[in-house]
Amino acid sequence: MRHILIDTDTGSDDAVALVMALNNSKISIEAITIVAGNIPVEQGLQNALYTVDLCNKKTPVYLGEGKPLKRPLRTSEFFHGQDGLGDIGLDLKGRKATEGNAIDIIIEKVYQLGNNLEIVALGPLTNLAIAIKRDPRIISKIKNCFIMGGTAFGPGNITPFSEFNFWVDPEAAEIVLQSGMKITMIDWDATKKYAWFDSKTIKSINKINTPLSKFSMDIQNNPKKYKKKKYGNETIELADPLAMAIALDPSIVMESKKYNVKINLSNEEHRGENILNEKGKKNTTIILKASRKKFLDIFKKSLT
Ligand code: BDR
Ligand code: CA
Fold this sequence. Notes:
The protein is built from 13 helices and eleven strands. The protein is α/β, with parallel strands linked by helices. It has a single domain (2-301), classed as Alpha-Beta Complex (Inosine-uridine Nucleoside N-ribohydrolase, Chain A), CATH 3.90.245. The strands form two sheets. The chain has a nine-stranded mixed β-sheet, sandwiched between helices. A two-stranded antiparallel ribbon has the order 7-8. Helix 1 packs parallel to helix 2 (41-54), helix 1 (12-22) packs parallel to helix 12 and helix 4 packs across helix 5. The longest helix is centred in the N-terminal third of the chain and has 14 residues, at 41-54. It is globular. Bound molecules: beta-D-ribofuranose and calcium ion. Calcium ion (CA) is lined by residues 9, 11, 14, 37-38, 122-123, 240.
């Protein structure tokens, strides 16, 4: 049995990734830790707790950091909706976090699981960066760290240079990437290539017709509206589900390469940009090719 901790800023694609993991009987989800990103951390907490309830699970959910290491928090309600889950009227209030703090829990779980904990990070890397600063001994004990973030070759989604998660807390991203941890980065390029949902794909998911398939597509209401207004079509990209699918089944990856990856921290216009080098310590595996079919199969299966 694999042991996974999910760190998330529970927006509309994070919630779908949570469903995929919560509905997978082959893994044990040790904890869900919440970080500020798409929405303030308290809202992310409510969204994760709602999703856990919807999946009829009792997975513990812990509150984490409310702001990036060195910068003011920049959220993305314009995309995910005011409540982060598409503003479709879900009851996203009043649920309670498990007692404890996300950073303490990350450290505790690493020791408890003796080199067997894997982390899937779906938001800004603030919680993880603080955890490894506080106790660097955990770095070599984390078995795998799958990160949704960055953009290796193409343009970003929040600026022409940067992807949202790395842009929100670039200092945290730099700490995690330079830590020496075993990292697989599932970036915005891979998302654009393999995790797009056009109207035909969305229709095929709606056909599954279960509460989970309905939830996963209904909460894309706001992203779809945003895309339609800005680009004239409703094709959305679901970044976090691709990262989760690769964590759950690494055989989706058909080609990957290790690079030395740094984060641009000095130039505000290029804030959070990935600087790739084929020389130097290769700290990050980047996905070059993946199977869209396998991704969609895993995605759809998790909604039944
Ligand atoms: C990432 O940023 C957020 O908007 C999504 O939840 C995803 O984690 C995509 O850039
Ligand atoms: Ca996210």
